[in-house]
Design brief:
Layout: H1 7-15, E1 18-22, H2 25-33, E2 39-44, H3 53-67, E3 71-76, H4 80-83, H5 98-105, H6 108-112, E4 125-128, H7 130-133, H8 138-145, H9 150-154, H10 157-164, H11 171-187, E5 191-195, H12 199-213, E6 218-222, H13 247-255, H14 262-269, H15 274-285, H16 291-305, H17 308-323, E7 333-334, E8 340-341, H18 342-348, H19 355-363, E9 367-369, E10 372-373, E11 380-381, E12 388-391, E13 395-399
Parallel strand pairs: 2-3, 2-5, 3-4, 5-6, 7-13
Antiparallel strand pairs: 1-6, 8-11, 9-10, 9-12, 12-13
GO biological process, one term: tyrosyl-tRNA aminoacylation
Family: Belongs to the class-I aminoacyl-tRNA synthetase family.
Pfam families: SYY_C-terminal, tRNA-synt_1b
């Protein structure tokens, strides 16, 4: 199958949101200019029930390849997830059962479909690495392991840090990059895409492809969106937008990001032209209030994962709620009987996950009843008065 070799499209593919390209920019540019279909994959271990923005970034890069006519594979690491990727971990991951892993992966294809296509002439494929990894015998594993050295494995920063701190590094954690490397060999791919935190694992696959097949495998590492502490935004950190979030939740979470995340967010999560992003960066540097740019970013992110009309509607609701201080028209109603404390009411309406969470919200001044801030745990809520409960600026519930 021939592919699109448009110069501008290829340059955008190789530069926008890209951290590094292995073996080089020139190598991959030349391969893309040949006009031959390449096969590449993104591997995701199902360690949680939802895909998130950390997955969306390389998925968006995959979508660019698909639009140019290249073949995509979304690989579910149902086998490797049971081992546990040690990347960025200061302690050994808790291993999961196969049942847990498959339950987590149940919605991945549906969520990934918001970004890449599994239909049509050039449909993406969905594969599971247990198909080949579960069949490897001990002899096979020993032979694969002979392609790597202990020194290579110890080059991983998290292993060096743990050893220096006297923390254990388990043998099965050394096997994780070996298993991920074999994925490339089993699928005989031309390339792999992933976050820059996966560089070690992806390059292990490149090494194994050279050793076992005498074939070069390109690797693209994408930039990560990090929070103010420098941590990547993901499941483990508990600060991530998931692809199962509602449009309003996505919008609100983007609005909670720091100003320093606005420009990187535009670069890796939207299709806005580079020139427009550069103009916004200059304007912010000149002292223009970044709030409006953040609203635009939130709308663009919603539009990316839903559609333009949904993004525009989210902006309208945000403006009514924050600028006009209006109560949403679709406030959920919760039927309760008898008067109760505000702590119990917050839990009953699911505005708080627990009584402890409810108390923390009250202590932080984040709870209102009928637009009045609640300061006491003993504040009484009476369903007969149909009170309006509010958590923060955008979460409401009316008790009836």
């Amino acid at each position: 199958m021939s592919t699109n070799t448009d110069k501008d499209a290829i340059n955008h593919l190789l530069t926008r949101g890209v951290e590094n390209i292995y073996p080089s920019f020139d190598y991959l540019e030349a391969r893309l200019n040949e006009g031959k279909q390449l096969t590449l994959y993104l591997g995701i271990d199902p360690t949680g029930p939802d895909l998130h923005l950390g997955h969306a970034i390389p998925l968006r890069k995959m979508a660019e390849f698909q639009k140019l006519g290249h073949k995509l594979i979304l690989l579910i690491g149902d086998f490797t997830a049971m081992i546990g990727d040690p990347t960025d971990k200061s302690a050994t991951r808790v291993q999961q059962t196969r049942e847990q892993v498959l339950a987590n992966a149940a919605k991945y294809k549906e969520q990934a479909s918001k970004i890449i296509s599994f239909e049509g002439e050039n449909a993406a494929e969905l594969k599971y690495n247990s198909e080949w990894l579960a069949k490897l015998g001990f002899t096979d594993v020993v032979e694969l392991a002979s392609n790597f050295t202990v020194q290579q494995m110890l080059e991983r920063d998290m292993f060096e840090k743990r050893i220096a701190e006297g923390k254990p590094v388990h043998l099965h954690e050394f096997l994780y990059p070996l298993m991920q490397a074999y994925d490339s060999v089993a699928m005989d791919v031309d390339g792999e895409i992933g976050g820059n935190d996966q560089t070690f694992n992806m390059l292990a696959g490149r090494d194994l492809m050279k050793s076992l097949k005498g074939k070069e495998k390109f690797v693209i590492t994408s930039k990560l969106l990090t929070d103010p502490t420098g941590k990547k935004m993901g499941k483990s950190e508990g600060n991530m937008i998931t692809l199962s979030d509602t449009p309003d939740d996505v919008f609100g979470k983007v609005m909670s990001w720091t100003d320093g995340m606005i420009i990187p967010g535009f670069e890796i999560l939207t299709d806005l032209p580079n020139g427009e992003i550069k103009e916004m960066k200059i304007a912010m540097g000149d002292g223009v209030n970044p709030r409006d740019f953040k609203v635009k970013l939130a709308a663009e992110v919603v539009a990316t994962f839903f559609d333009r009309a949904t993004g525009d509607a989210a902006v309208d609701r945000f403006n009514k709620l924050f600028q006009e201080h209006a109560v949403p028209e679709d406030v959920p109603e919760v039927k309760l009987e008898g008067a109760m404390s505000i702590v119990d009411a917050l839990v009953a309406t699911k505005l708080a996950q627990s009584k402890g969470d409810a108390r923390r919200l009250i202590d932080g001044g984040g709870v209102k009843v009928n637009e009045e801030v609640v300061t006491s745990y003993d504040f009484v809520v009476d369903p007969a008065m149909s009170p309006l409960l509010q958590k923060g600026k955008r979460h409401f519930a009316r008790i009836v």
